[in-house]
Predict the 3D structure of the following.
Amino acid sequence: MKLVLSLGIGLLNLVALCGAAGAQTLRVPRVEVGGEAGMLVAIGEGLHPMPTAGPTVTLHISQQDAIELAADTIFLGSGQSTGCTFFNTGARRGVRPIGQGFDRSTPPEQGYYTYQKVPERRETRPDGSAVMYPAHSTGEMSRLNIAIFGGGFERGLNRHASFRLEGSGFLAVHDDGFLGFRILAGVSVPIGGYRAATIK
Amino acid sequence: MQPRSNKRGIVGLLCCVVVSAATGCELDTAGTPQVIAGPLVPSPVALHAPYVWDTRDELMVWTENTVSLGSFSIDNHDSNGAIAARFAGLYPRLILRGPDIDPPARSTRAVRLRYQWFPDGVSSPELWLFASFEATNAPTRDVQPTTRLVLNTGPEWKEAESMPWNQPARPPLDVRYL
């Protein structure tokens, strides 16, 4: 099985969060920023773990719904500079109670983004001539062609931060199919802090 | 009951997902490859027939130049001369660089080779010979059009003609050398 991740992979991940309001609820601000880090493990000819990390931005449409954006990047040391970025977009429902958690569920599709810097290359031909290929970079944004499954939770730590943890498995359904899983943990910080409120 | 704005947001997100799922894009900043020409191989003798090399002097232009690689000799016992080459090892590598053709041989479609093959010890019944063209009208400068000739074992004289190799519908080439 060919491991596509050797070229570098980013994932476009749609995350849905379904929440349950607790007795003590908070008003969420319009924007939250944070970061997450974890491990992505591709299953090809063996297990290939790769650390991944990146920022997150949560844009609240209302007190119950939000769009979440994240960019998690991994770098692969393969002689050439290769990187990948995970682009996560998500919709979230629910309000954030301190000390209580949100259930997270993952949607059925995601894609990936690859990036590679190729150094200058010289190729000598049998007739003694040579071809110089200049250094260049390539990037590819895939279609959403990876099925994923998984879940997680998010817990408010205090008025200024919440902890998030998620895990998911994925299965690529394109020509060079592969499967794997990832585990991410992170912190989200509300801009302006959470404010006490009662949501009915 | 869901607020209307929430529904619009979710619908918008779903639309974004659908658009993303249907598309995908690639970005490549690769520049134009630069070709550095190899050594020249001028032809000091006039051919007795256009694009046919038979005599000892004509054939020596192929074997006695700075590019050709291998152990060759000219066999001109027959009325038609021939280049004799010995293949040794599992993957023998021989290079024969033809003389520069000026002006280029226009509308070249194939190479025809007249040959004998005397097997020496254990060998394959078939041998592939690759012919690369330096052409003024090649589709790309960095990749030389290449054809393949399949040679079969046997002491009798045979002819082989090249077949398209790396381009399925190659246009005729104006060849500067082979």
Remarks:
- The helical segments of chain B are 4-22, 56-63.
- The longest strand of chain B covers residues 154-161.
